[in-house]
Every structure is written in structure tokens, then in C-alpha cells.
Specification:
By secondary structure, this protein is an all-alpha fold. Helices cover 60% and strands 0% of the residues. The longest helix is centred in the C-terminal third of the chain and has 20 residues.
């Protein structure tokens, strides 16, 4: 995605969100772009989006927020971590009475809207589950319950892969699993598409 396809205001907002710990899916939602577009732009604009360094989660703060009744999504927003990171920390560090299983935690209207937005951006159910701190089965059940907000995708797993985006992400160090999650494809599909794409590049060079 060319840099000039994003305005200066959008780039500034995206960089600020990234610096504050937002995920690529969250940034895409905030600027009204597809997840693939944002991921490709960020991979090509490391001056705006430098790699993040690992930082330890504040366990005392985590337990305090959890004791106040906040769910993993709200805690993640308050502490600047991904929901999946917060959820792992809850199970590792919080007492049993605070480690509420995902299946037992009621869905909020905001979570359903967020899941729908991620689905419409092309994210797979397992990716949505990781973003919201839910299980894939829980997300699948909610998608069936609100089918109007989670329309069936044309082509399903067999739809064409955005090979240029996949190639850029792979060159940036992304794993096949992560690429597949973000572009809504299978790991094997991504591997095969990239292999064919590399062979095509070699043939063009030789020719």
C-alpha cells in the first residue's frame, strides 16, 4: 500500500495508536481501513511503526483491576496490552475466583460490535478470539447468533490470497500462521501461494 494512500492525519493517528499499544486490528478499525491494508502499510513504514520491545505486565495493577470487575478487554485497554496477553496473565497470576473462564463471561454489546468489525475486515474467528480474549468456539457461536453482523464470506477458504500483502508481511518477518490469520486464509494456503510467487519471481529474473 503506497504511503500517499494515507493522509498525514491518518499516519499520525496510526503511529500514536501503535505507540500506545494498539493492535493492527484496532488501528484498522480506528482509521476505517482493512486489516490487510494497515498491515501492509505498517510493514513498509517501520519509521512510523518501530518493533515493540517486550515489557512485563504489572501484576498488582492487573489483580486490582480484575478485583474491580473489569473484563480482559477493559484491562487490556487500561494497561496498554493485547487482550490475549492480559488473559494469559489473569490465568497465571490471579487467584481462581478472579480467573473467570471465557465461556462463562457474558458478551457485551460492544464486544459483539467489535467482533463484527474485525470479521468484516477479513479477520478469521481464531484471530477475533485472540483479540477479544475469547475462545474460537465462543466467537463462532456468537457469529451464528448474529448472522446479520457476520455475513458469510464469498469463496470462504478458497477465495484468492492477497499475495502481495502476504509477501510483504513475510519479508518483514511474519510467520505463515500470523499472515494467514490476518488475511483470512489457511497456513497451508499462504505457504503454497508464497512458494509459487517466489518461483514466479525467479523465472522472471532468469528470463
Amino acid at each position: 500500500m503506497p504511503r500517499n494512500s494515507y493522509t498525514a492525519a491518518q499516519r499520525s493517528k496510526m503511529a500514536r495508536l501503535w505507540a500506545n499499544g494498539a493492535s493492527q486490528a484496532e488501528i484498522a478499525y480506528q482509521v476505517g481501513r482493512s486489516l490487510q491494508s494497515v498491515a501492509s502499510f505498517m510493514a513498509d513504514s517501520r519509521d512510523y511503526f518501530p518493533p515493540r520491545r517486550h515489557r512485563a505486565i504489572d501484576v498488582e495493577h492487573l489483580i486490582r483491576l480484575r478485583s474491580e470487575g473489569l473484563d480482559p478487554a477493559a484491562i487490556a485497554e487500561a494497561m496498554g496490552f493485547k487482550v490475549c496477553t492480559v488473559r494469559r496473565a489473569i490465568h497465571q497470576h490471579c487467584p481462581p475466583e478472579l480467573a473467570l473462564p471465557a465461556a462463562a463471561r457474558p458478551w457485551t454489546g460492544a464486544e459483539v460490535k467489535r467482533a463484527s468489525a474485525l470479521w468484516l475486515q477479513g479477520m478469521r474467528l481464531d484471530g477475533i478470539a485472540a483479540e477479544l480474549g475469547r475462545t474460537s468456539s465462543s466467537v463462532a457461536e456468537k457469529a451464528k447468533e448474529h448472522r446479520g453482523m457476520f455475513p458469510r464470506r464469498v469463496g470462504g477458504r478458497n477465495r484468492p490470497i492477497d499475495i502481495q500483502t502476504a509477501y510483504v508481511l513475510r519479508q518483514s518477518g511474519w510467520t505463515h500462521v500470523k499472515i494467514a490469520e490476518h488475511i483470512g486464509a489457511t497456513k497451508n494456503g499462504v505457504q503454497k501461494a508464497l512458494q509459487n510467487y517466489r518461483l514466479k519471481i525467479v523465472e522472471e529474473v532468469v528470463a
